[in-house]
Amino acid sequence: MSMVASHGPKLRCALCRFALLSAVALMVAGCGSETTPELAATRMPAPMVRVRLGPPRQEAVITVQGKCQVYDLASRRLLRSEDELSGALFTVRGEGLDLDGRPLGSPHVTIVAHAGGTILVDRQPYRGNIHVVAASGKVLLVNVLNVEDYVASVVGGELYRKWHIECHKAQAIAARTYALYQMAHRSAARAYDVTDSPASSQAYKGIESETEVTREAAAATRGIVLTYDAGGTAKLFEAFYHSTCGGRTVSAWDRWPKVPRIEPLSGIPCPYCTASPHHRWSLSMGSQLLARKLRSLDSKLKGMQDVVKVWVSDRHLTPDGRVRAVWITDDRGGSWQIASKAFKKCFPDATRFLSSRFSLTLEGGNVVVHGRGYGHAIGMCQWGAQGQATKGRRAEAILHFYYPGSRLARVY
Ligand SMILES: [Zn+2]
């Protein structure tokens, strides 16, 4: 699908976006060639990021408070001009979009609110414009907005409101770096750069998650990103982060083999996240109940009797410490290797396994899971960043700690 420029006053041209990103790449390279990165403020505009709002849906209800226009994305043609949109229903018919049951004559449009107007999707207010795209019979919504506004929202979606400003600033730089990296590396055919979900991208909730401190953190770090030295050229990298490492962050490439083996994503010991409620966690289940569940899960486990031993062998750990399989021995001397995924399924809510790094014990007839950390443990540990900030560390020092060998650069 081609995402091309439109005529409206607030519409941004997709080509301009790519031109800006090229400039970003050049400036990063320029910064990297200097001994000290140039971090002085600039007046360059921030690029626009495209954020997919939720998964594709059967229909979308959009409200615009104030005047708005609807443009075709490809032809730049004005399709509708409205004094307001109140609960407008977008659906797909054939290849095209319907608005309140009437064909719009286009498979992809952008909704532009006049200055001061706000666009609401699912009753949540968003800055910028909303692209509505017919995709395989469903409606895809994409929020297109200034990266700085996006960062101010993500920081609020990712951190607790009362956390330290230096932690907020570190998060703003990591979130901006991650977003700009995705913008520079996503295929041009895709209608978005990032999603609004922390599971696949970064937590983004539009205006709702912005606060004074998140806007301050974004403004204080405007245009600043993390880079690494790629043979004399400074390059952006995917600045992953997570809730709680539990004592050590791990290398990105052990989990995602395609990630380049670079120092900032190599993993380091972290003694700063002990205040996290997820630093250590545990789950337990009666061993008889567990055996019953395992027997019903897999016919190969039918013969399992009373559990007398549970353990995780080093052989079944991934290089970054995730458990691939657990072992169970019963009172008849039978031993079973059970895939971690199947083992987790026995517990009422598998999401309570906050990470895949755990050990097992048998205590008083219960199988106890002793877990460490929350999340993938790659890059910045958010609870650790907060721990360091409360000890007086600045955002720059926190980022250099979690992304060793990285350098800050201003890209606009
Ligand atoms: Zn940590």
Structural description of this entry:
This protein has 412 residues and is of the alpha+beta class. It is 24% helix and 30% strand. The protein is globular, with a radius of gyration of 25 Å. The two termini are 29 Å apart. Zinc ion binds next to loops.
Mean pLDDT: 89
Cofactors, ions, other ligands? zinc ion
Order of strands side by side in the largest beta sheet? Answer: 4-3-8-11-12-1-13
Count of alpha/pi helices: 9
Amino- and carboxy-terminal Cα gap: 29 Å
Question: How many beta-strand segments?
Answer: 24
Helix content: 10-25%
Uncertain stretches of 5 or more adjacent residues: 1-37
Main sheet properties: 7 strands, mixed
Structure described in brief:
The chain is built from nine helices and 24 strands. The protein has helices at 14-32, 147-158, 165-185, 212-220, 252-255, 287-297, 340-345, 382-390, 395-402; strands at 48-52, 59-65, 68-72, 78-82, 85-93, 96-99, 102-103, 108-113, 118-121, 124-126, 129-135, 138-146, 194-195, 224-230, 233-236, 241-242, 280-286, 307-311, 325-330, 335-339, 358-363, 366-372, 380-381, 407-410.
